[in-house]
Amino acid sequence: MYKTFFSLVFKRMDAERAHHLAFRWIRLAVRVPVLRTFVAAVFAPRYKELRTEALGLRMHGPFGLAAGFDKNAVAIDGMAMLGFDHVEIGTVTGEPQPGNPKKRLFRLVEDRALINRMGFNNDGSLAVAARLASRRPVFKTVVGVNIGKTKVVPEAEAVADYVKSAERLAPYADYLVVNVSSPNTPGLRDLQAVGHLRPLLSAVREAADRAVPARRVPLLVKIAPDLADEDVDAVADLAVELGLDGIIATNTTIAREGLGLTSDPAVVQETGGLSGAPLKARSLEVLRRLYARVGDRITLVGVGGVETAEDAWQRILAGATLVQGYSAFIYQGPFYARDLHKGLAARLRQSPYATLADAVGADVRNPA
Ligand SMILES: Cc1cc2nc3c(=O)[nH]c(=O)nc-3n(C[C@H](O)[C@H](O)[C@H](O)COP(=O)(O)O)c2cc1C
């Protein structure tokens, strides 16, 4: 049904307009108590066997919404109503900013992919912190807060910009993510080099501890799929050294070659980060490499091209404790999380593992 609706309505609309329209419906639905109870019952059934503990947090399951969909923390309950077990808001920057000029979001329907160069359009850390502070949750869900650099802030002042966001937002974050991997802020991905990353992560850790002395807010870093393998290893080693809580792999890719893209070449060559199905193989590869390096010392979050329960299961076997998705939600609609959970519970039951936790990293620990 959603596929027909997508072809008839959303596909004919500008991608960003369609996003805002869907977003408005979700936010409206969650305001009506009877409706939200009904929608949650249909779209967010809970499976006991999928209960997950990660980052010191209890969740209904391992599958959550990746950053970028709810940049300003306005639809956390709406996304929980649709079955996402955690919602990562942001990227939020120190200061508010409009992002890049439109048009900046493109669909590659044949490839089940998107290209975006949104450029961190968001209300800024002060406004988002105020919104989170006044939030009255309707559904219990884990809220991750993803932070990034304000575009106009020079690289030399990047740490201070992240620290500002961390201080303002950590009090409302179940976990905090340092995003150094979006391709749409000039110079941002250079911060993935260990020489830049060490002082940045240390400063954000201290800022979070200063802002929230009573609780250790878990800190994660989100990396790009375009890192060379040695750089993936270097980030993994640094994460262990600094006592980081997790790594999110991966963000979107700037690659286009060798991905078998069949969509209109004029769209394929748009500047920005590519997400969705064509990202699947590399994201999985990066995840597997990370798990081989860090094992169970750090929580890994698998994201990039997760479309089905089988994809999520493969991420878990490759070392992910948590799994996220974004692009497939655009193509599959409100049944995305529900179908994924149902399939994942079935996959676990058929497997030799008693719990999801037992399956984490099994493929890497015992290669076939
Ligand atoms: C339109 C769009 C905006 C995004 N914005 C952000 C962002 O602000 N911060 C971030 O860390 N990732 C952002 N992402 C990346 C996603 O969180 C995710 O890492 C990536 O899309 C791969 O997952 P997917 O293939 O399931 O979409 C964005 C992705 C899309 C499609």
From TrEMBL:
- GO biological process terms on file: 'de novo' pyrimidine nucleobase biosynthetic process; 'de novo' UMP biosynthetic process
Q: Which cofactor does it need?
A: FMN
Single GO MF descriptor: dihydroorotate dehydrogenase (quinone) activity
Signal sequence extent:
none
Q: What is its EC number?
A: 1.3.5.2
Q: What is its main location?
A: membrane
Uppermost EC category? oxidoreductase
Residues involved in FMN binding: A67, G68, F69, D70, K71, T91, N146, N179, K222, T250, G276, G305, Y326, S327
Give the GO cellular component terms, alphabetically: cytoplasm; plasma membrane
PROSITE patterns associated with the record: DHODEHASE_2
InterPro entries associated with the record:
Aldolase_TIM, DHO_dehydrogenase, Dihydroorotate_DH_2, Dihydroorotate_DH_cat, Dihydroorotate_DH_CS
Return the cofactor note field: Binds 1 FMN per subunit.
State the pathway, as annotated in the record: Pyrimidine metabolism; UMP biosynthesis via de novo pathway; orotate from (S)-dihydroorotate (quinone route): step 1/1
| Location in the cell | Cell membrane
Q: Which part of the chain is the Dihydroorotate dehydrogenase catalytic domain? A: 50-348
Which reaction(s) does the protein catalyse, per the Swiss-Prot or TrEMBL entry? (S)-dihydroorotate + a quinone = orotate + a quinol
Q: Where does substrate bind?
A: K71, N116, R117, M118, G119, F120, N179, N184, N251, T252
Q: Which UniProt keywords apply?
A: Cell membrane, Flavoprotein, FMN, Membrane, Oxidoreductase, Pyrimidine biosynthesis
The UniProt family comment states: Belongs to the dihydroorotate dehydrogenase family. Type 2 subfamily.
PANTHER family, per the entry: DIHYDROOROTATE DEHYDROGENASE (QUINONE), MITOCHONDRIAL, DIHYDROOROTATE DEHYDROGENASE (QUINONE), MITOCHONDRIAL-RELATED
Kindly give the NCBIfam families that the UniProt entry links to this protein: PRK05286.1-2 (NF003645), PRK05286.2-1 (NF003648), PRK05286.2-5 (NF003652), pyrD_sub2 (TIGR01036)
According to its UniProt entry, the function of this protein is described as: Catalyzes the conversion of dihydroorotate to orotate with quinone as electron acceptor.
What protein name does the entry list? Answer: Dihydroorotate dehydrogenase (quinone)
Lineage of the source organism?
Answer: Bacteria, Bacillati, Actinomycetota, Actinomycetes, Kitasatosporales
